[in-house]
Amino acid sequence: MYLFFLFGLLCAVGHHIFYSTLHGRIADRQLEMLRYGAVLAFATKAGLVAAVIVAFRQRLWLTVRSKLLSVAALDSLFAATDDITALWNLEIYRTASVAMTLASFVWLAPLVIIFTSNTLGVEVYFNTVNGSCPNVRTLNFNKESTENWRDPTIIDDLIGQSMSTWNATATSEKFTADDFDYYTSSSGTIDLTATMATFTKQTVVRPGIMEDVCGLGWNCSYTIKFTGPGYKCVELAKGVGSTVGKFGDHDPPKDFGFDFLLPKGNFSYQAQTMGGEYYQSQVSPVSPGGMPTDLQPPYPKNLGAFRTEPVIWVGYAERVDTRPVNRTMPGWDKAFIPHVFACEHYETAYTIRFSHENGKQTTNVTDRQYLAKVMDTKWLQDEVNPSPHDNDDSDSTQASPNKNHTTDGTNDPTIGYPASSYVFPQQLERYRKVAAYHSIGMLMRGFIEGTLHSGNVLNPIGVGKALQTKLLDPRQKWFPYPNLQDRLQSLYEDIVLSVLAEPRFVSVVWAANPDIITGAVSDTSPGQRDSTYPCERSRFENRYKYLRRDLWIVYGLALLLALAAIVAGTMAVLQNEGVMHDTRFSNIVAATRGPALDKLRWQSQAAAASGAAGDGGHHGRDLPRDIKNVKVGYGIVPVPGSEQDEHSHSQQYQPGPHGLDDNTRVPGRMWDAGEVRYGFGLEGDVRQLLRSDIGVVPRRRARSAQRF
């Protein structure tokens, strides 16, 4: 009894320890873990039930030794832990309430398994880990300064890509100290990248970046810093009747301003972005590769020079009243607020927060610091290099091949001030970097250049590609978004950040080691040390949740009841002369070997006839009702021949009027005179035990008359 209880207690503690080790862990092998928990719950229940059953048996024997019960009640009492129908007998609840309480616990014990099975669950947990991630890339445009198209960077058998394409004054074989490379245009790779970013209206994402950086099944975020190109925009004027002033030293372009914007003009959007643009055909004629055919060193001083960087001038009308759709309708003059702003190209220090979540990349520019202008010159838009042939009336066939009639030996009519701030091809590293910035800026300027005629709001007419960008709102009849200035800066940043989607660019480097060009492959250094960068990883996880309180409420109640049963069983053992009893066959035989019950008719007439016919009867299953109601108890049963007096607590055997015959004996059994046995007997034939403060003494029940 005590060992069974200890076993159950240890299993309950083990169940608690097992679930405690699972609490907060990733919920893998769930069925397996639940099975282990069920095994421990079964073991706990088995140990406690076994202890209670042993205690029940002690109470059972104490009850039959101290009380008289009907045969039916005894049937139910002995079967109470094995046959649930035995619980329907109400008599045993009156005469053996403690024993039946213990039996009820046995039948209710499976609830322990049912309730504890729900104490280990799974909850969704948002796990955040501050650690590091591999393959985190950033931008280093200084790499453009050192990239030589004649000797390109090769990574994983792929040629590194630049932002720019180049012409040269001579072939590599004839290249001398007087020769140089000069800018032509943006490269096809950056053209494609910028086009995708502009027309998808978001930063281009490199395929597989989440798995490379975050790891399979994880989200992650990190912050990178780099220096790159950016546009600094300033609003110059706002409202009907305003005038456009200077932007720094720059004068607004011609045919631009509030006179052209709604409500006075017809444009809801107007952008001039190419004033002072680098002239691609610097000289003519040239052979393939831009090599001058009619020029010999020394070449024109300004050949290939960046003279100025075009300023972006944007005017737009904000629609504040949607009712007027043409200027004939009332309220037209108050339906729009015109704005004008300008943007200049700067080298900018960026702080960018990247987030990769659920397969989607988002970027947030948390800080931008404008460091210096890409070109610190002013475009003199009213001045063009004059040609001495401008007033020449000679035959046109003799005209100069310089179609713009400039005098500096190039075809580029742009004049910037001061000329000392020009960036020349001979300034090799600076020139290449300015060329990279210029290429990216030129692409964005080309996308937003143009106008949108909204004189009839319901039938806007666009010129240029601005309709394909995120600057104009299709839900507002293609009117610009009210925050157009911020969206223009964001569009340019989308293009710049999209460079990261093509790791073949030489400007793409590891964030942890900005001097190492990444190429299109993942980091293969030992432990990925070249690319490991601080990041925050997160994901939703299924984790085990142990309901400790619920488990111990169930086990605590079960253990408390089992302990009470053990106390009751221990008290019964003490009252049973310190001897533990059970209901094994040998114990039952020892308890029923006396002849005192042979006087009862244990079979109905039908059963007796059947037994006489040789089928052995029904073995007590079909007892007569009057037999079931006979009071029977367990104690000292005297046998015939006993001559002990009343003081010895036994008496002469007196056959009663019950049953078949008073002198019935068990066949083949020899009884000694004066023999006394413990066993079951009828009321009046059995002496039972009474509690006393000095021990346990037998008592004799008065025999009551029974009629059968």
TrEMBL record:
Keywords: Membrane, Transmembrane, Transmembrane helix. Residues 382-417, 638-665 are annotated as: Disordered. The keyword Metal-binding does not apply. It comes from the Eukaryota. The keyword Repressor does not apply. Residues 397-413 have a biased composition (Polar residues). The chain crosses the membrane at residues 34-56, 96-115, 552-574. This is Uncharacterized protein.
